[in-house]
Amino acid sequence: MKKILLISLITLLPVMVSAQLKVGIMSPDQVLDSLPETSQIENELEAYVQEREQSFERSYQTYIERMTEYSERMEEGTISGNEQAAMEEELMELEEELNGLQNRIERQIRQKQNELFSPLLSRVEAAMETVSRDLGLDYVINKTASTGDPIVYYASDRGVDITERVIEHLTNN
Do the beta carbons of residue 135 and residue 24 sit within 8 Å? Predict the structure, then answer.
């Protein structure tokens, strides 16, 4: 039984050695940072975020003004029981509206970010696929993991780093 296993292993060893996978590594952040479109998209997104923040700030300011009025009238004792109840109800509604507005704005920002970056990410993915095929790679692994992307625990210097080739492909086409 051991002889059969040993013969099988010796026979399969050359096949296993020749079937090694070619793996490349790439830094998507570096690729994105090298493209001029990235800063344009980031600027557009930042302007959109500021616009949304100003919208929220106006609503928040209204809430603060009403809260201040309520607090001052309570301190002065110039508010009746019915007015106090009505103002407290109004303040709770304003607070709920603010929370809803904040959630909507966060969704809108995520949606805008996806809308702006999707075409660029598609181009990077297509360039990566082209470069990988040209180099005969079986896999490309993310070199960095700061954004929760796949993590590389070890990458030898023998790995084929295609980052520069992807940048070249994107900037020359």
Answer: yes
